[in-house]
Amino acid sequence: MMNINVTEFESSLSGKGCRIAIVLSRFNEMITESLLSGALSKLKALGVSPNDIVLARVPGAFEITGTCRQLIASKKYDAILTLGAVIRGETPHFDVVVNAVAGGVGELAAKSDIPVIFGVLTTDNVEQAMNRAGLKSGNKGADVAEAAIEMINLYKKIK
Ligand code: INI
Prior knowledge:
Shape: globular
CATH class of the domain at 20-124: Alpha Beta
Distance between the termini: 27 Å
Radius of gyration: 16 Å
Largest sheet: 4 strands, parallel
Number of helices: 5
Bound molecules: 5-nitro-6-ribityl-amino-2,4(1H,3H)-pyrimidinedione
Structural class: alpha/beta
CATH superfamily of the domain at 20-124: Lumazine/riboflavin synthase
């Protein structure tokens, strides 16, 4: 890397005082509950108090975006964490649901003043989803929880 000094916004992974809202989709519940466990363990490990975490369960991934919008409007949270699982093998309208949730959450993330983090698994089959929900390839819930804390602290530094 070139050695030129610039001012860098340094984030941190301290979750102390961070208020987090989680939107959890119930569809493919076994997988999404496992994502939730991963997220909660990581938030705890990073110092977030359970008193500062709220959870909104919704029927499916399609309902995630609207719920995020309500939570953002309440102005009570420092970040919104979305968790869900859309599995191709189980739905002919996989692409419709994926595009809706990725586009919806993506737009909110780009436009809102707080981080809105995308933790919706989109996989071809249940096995892939289970692997990413703690069985083999880590737990996406934990990954996005860490991303939320990093982004909260980065936004605070930039502001
Ligand atoms: N919702 C999901 O979260 N994952 C899926 O795999 C899924 N499938 O398979 O259809 C799914 N559908 C439900 C959808 O998200 C809405 O809840 C429903 O259409 C009502 O608006």
